[in-house]
Amino acid sequence: MTTQGPVLPIWSCGGCDLPWPCPTRRRELRAEYADAPVSLALYPGGYLVRAAEDMPWAPAGALHRRFIGWTRQPPKLPKRRSATVPAEPGRAGRHQTG
Asked: Which residues are within 8 A (CB) of 66 and not within 5 positions of it... i.e. 6 or more apart?
C-alpha cells in the first residue's frame, strides 16, 4: 500500500508533501491502471471534484492538469523498422531526358 495519499483539505501528498497526486503516486497509478486508460482518468477525476470543492480559489485548468491532464498518454505505435527498398532494375534510366 502506498503512503502517497492526499492530505485533505490542502491536497498535499502524505508521503512527500508535494501537491497530490505527486510524481510517485502518478507512477503508481500508471502501473496499476496500465491496461485501463479510461479507468486511470476516472479515478483521479473523482478526486478532482472533491479538490475543486476544497480549493474554490484554484483555477479549473490548473486543477484539471494536476488531477487528470497527466493521465493522457500518446498511443503506442509499432516500432518502425528501418529497411531499405531495393531499387528497380533500370529505374535510373527512366528519368533521364534525352
From this structure: 19, 21, 51
Query: Which string of b and e fits 71-90 if b means at least 16 CB within 10 Å?
Result: beeeeeeeeeeeeeeeeeee
Q: Is the separation of the CB atoms in 13 and 7 below 8 Å?
A: yes
Strand residues in the chain grouped as ranges (E):
6-7, 12-13
- CA distances 14 to 41, 74, 77, Å, are 21, 30, 36
CA distance 26 to 34: 12
CA distance 5 to 57: 22
Task: State pTM to two decimals.
Answer: 0.69
Q: Report residue 60 CA to chain centroid gap.
A: 19
- pLDDT (tens digit per residue) in 55-74: 999 999 999 999 999 998 65
On whether the CB atoms of residues 43 and 29 are closer than 8 A, the answer is yes
